[in-house]
């Protein structure tokens, strides 16, 4: 019996020695890991680049030790603790987490080495959690208490924050570049054969590079963060578009303010040969400047056409950019690719809308600048000033034809019809403005109707250009208002006064015996609109109209 007891004691002692040795080995391994962690902390401020691969290898060492502990030590240590592997992984998780936290706090920008460390940390954490869960299957709470003691590294969140910071940096640089280059842009259509701004080519190149660089990042969340990038790009392009049209004016910028209503003078404002000669010299001097491209004039007609071409080019390239982005997304390994790709059609919707709005604004600005600014000397200052027969529309048509040639040769063919249509609309508006709001220098008799109608045919023929210009139906569409108003200049004064009284009473509810209110100017000319009828009377060169206006509204003959 004594021999059996001695053998049993010997066996127990041997097991205790083995356990002591194993515990010593475990503690020695853990101590080595802790020394590596401390070493990593000391090297953080000295040479972070040397630390990066170390933290990756440290994560592998911790994983190896954790699985060794699970396989070798945990079965023995269960004699003293129900969850030995759980306690071990919590300790290892905390040790590595402290080093990782210090490392993350010193990160300035996203690099491949940093991503390597964060991926290694993410894998380590998954392994440690798996060990803790498997070791806690038989516990009362299923290992929840152990898991609660392992605050997540949130490596994916760190990656997301770093990528967002990377995106912001790229977008900030892009906006700075846009501002810097737009300040240098002269909008010269001769800069390239496509006749759009070189800065647009560069900004689209930078956008393309940003997208390519984004998809080269070694991450798995491209689809999740792509909307941040495309939205930022959309805003940058919108900023460029806004700057491209800034300062170019609008329709209302060029239309002159309407003079106060007066009775017309029945004598010519500028009679005599001398005034005709002076006007001809002024026309000739301005005509010599038509179509020139002055580098100092960034708002000349050729430059405005270049701006239109630029926005048209960006608008076209947005479709290409969208397709390229979808292709890059499809080749990535990011989850939820299909859901994100399906929404990419709206990725650059702000820029697309800004292009359409900008093109329309620039087309109008170009048209109304031509008619009311560049050609104001032959339209506003010349047409029908004095005698109608001696101040007709021919000078305007001749100069306008030259402008149309410049526009046709400069503007992109996909927006050419739109620009010329806007010029036509502006010329029709200018023609009506001369007839209805041209000031006391103009007066029309019933006999002038045929001349005015013929002049308008000359103007419409210019845009038809023997079938080589705008379509007939388009010309008819926008000439409807003028054609509806012109017969008023052929209507006798008494009938015109009666029409005016009737329309005013209908519009404002006045009775035939009460005083007629003065209809306000709406600018929406119509043969049934009281203010339009009143203006025809104001420019009617006869005594009946003169007496009616003087008696009814006390209108003066001059300002």
Automatic annotation (TrEMBL):
What start-end ranges are recorded for coiled-coil regions in this protein? Answer: none
Domain (MHD2): give its ranges: 390-500
Top-level division of the source organism's lineage: Eukaryota
The MHD1 domain covers: 115-258
Tell me the PROSITE patterns matching this sequence.
MHD1, MHD2
The protein here is known as Pentatricopeptide repeat-containing protein
Protein species of origin: Hibiscus syriacus
């Amino acid at each position: 019996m004594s021999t059996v007891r001695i053998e049993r004691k010997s066996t127990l002692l041997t097991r205790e020695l083995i356990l002591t040795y194993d515990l010593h080995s475990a503690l020695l391994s853990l101590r080595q890991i802790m020394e590596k962690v401390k070493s990593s902390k000391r090297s953080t401020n000295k040479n972070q680049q040397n630390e990066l691969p170390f933290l990756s290898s440290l994560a592998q060492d911790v994983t190896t030790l954790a699985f060794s502990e699970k396989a070798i030590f945990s079965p023995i240590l269960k004699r003293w603790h129900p969850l030995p592997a759980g306690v071990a992984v919590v300790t290892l998780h905390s040790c590595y987490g402290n080093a990782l936290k210090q490392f993350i706090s010193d990160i300035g920008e996203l690099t491949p080495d940093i991503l390597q460390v964060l991926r290694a940390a993410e894998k380590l954490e998954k392994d440690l959690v798996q060990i803790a869960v498997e070791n806690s299957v038989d516990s009362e709470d299923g290992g929840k208490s152990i898991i609660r003691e392992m605050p997540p590294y949130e490596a994916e969140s760190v990656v997301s924050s770093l990528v967002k910071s990377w995106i912001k940096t790229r977008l900030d640089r892009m906006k700075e570049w846009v501002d810097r280059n737009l300040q240098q842009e002269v909008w010269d259509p001769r800069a390239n054969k496509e006749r759009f701004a070189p800065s647009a080519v560069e900004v689209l190149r930078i956008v393309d590079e940003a997208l390519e660089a984004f998809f080269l990042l070694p991450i798995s969340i491209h689809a999740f963060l792509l909307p941040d990038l495309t939205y930022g790009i959309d805003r940058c392009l919108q900023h460029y578009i806004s700057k491209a049209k800034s300062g170019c004016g609008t329709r209302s910028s060029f239309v002159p303010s309407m003079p106060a209503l007066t009775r017309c003078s029945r004598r010519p404002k500028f009679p005599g040969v001398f005034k005709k000669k002076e006007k001809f010299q002024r026309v000739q001097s301005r005509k010599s400047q038509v179509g020139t491209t002055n580098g100092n004039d960034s708002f000349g007609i050729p430059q405005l056409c270049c701006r239109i071409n630029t926005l048209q080019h960006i608008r076209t390239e947005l479709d290409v950019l969208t397709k390229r982005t979808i292709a890059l997304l499809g080749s990535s390994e990011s989850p939820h690719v299909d859901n994100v790709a399906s929404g990419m059609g709206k990725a650059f919707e702000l820029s697309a809308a800004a292009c359409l709005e900008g093109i329309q604004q620039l087309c109008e600005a170009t048209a109304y600048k031509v008619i009311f600014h560049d050609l104001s000397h032959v339209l506003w200052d010349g047409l029908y000033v004095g005698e109608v027969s001696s101040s007709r529309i021919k000078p305007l048509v001749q100069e306008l034809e030259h402008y149309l040639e410049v526009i046709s040769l400069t503007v992109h063919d996909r927006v050419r019809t739109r620009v010329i249509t806007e010029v036509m609309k502006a010329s029709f508006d200018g023609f009506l403005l001369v007839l209805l709001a041209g000031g006391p220098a103009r007066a029309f008799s019933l006999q002038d109707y045929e001349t005015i109608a013929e002049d308008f045919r000359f103007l419409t023929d210019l845009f038809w250009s023997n079938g080589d210009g705008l379509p007939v139906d388009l010309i008819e569409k926008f000439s409807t208002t003028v054609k509806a108003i012109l017969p008023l200049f052929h209507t006798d004064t008494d009938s015109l006064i009666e029409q005016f009284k009737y329309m005013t009473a209908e519009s404002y509810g006045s009775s035939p015996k009460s005083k007629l209110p003065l209809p306000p100017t709406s600018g929406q000319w119509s043969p049934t609109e009281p203010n339009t009828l009143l203006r025809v009377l104001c420019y009617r060169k006869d005594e009946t109209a003169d007496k009616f206006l003087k008696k009814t509204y006390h209108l003066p003959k001059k300002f």
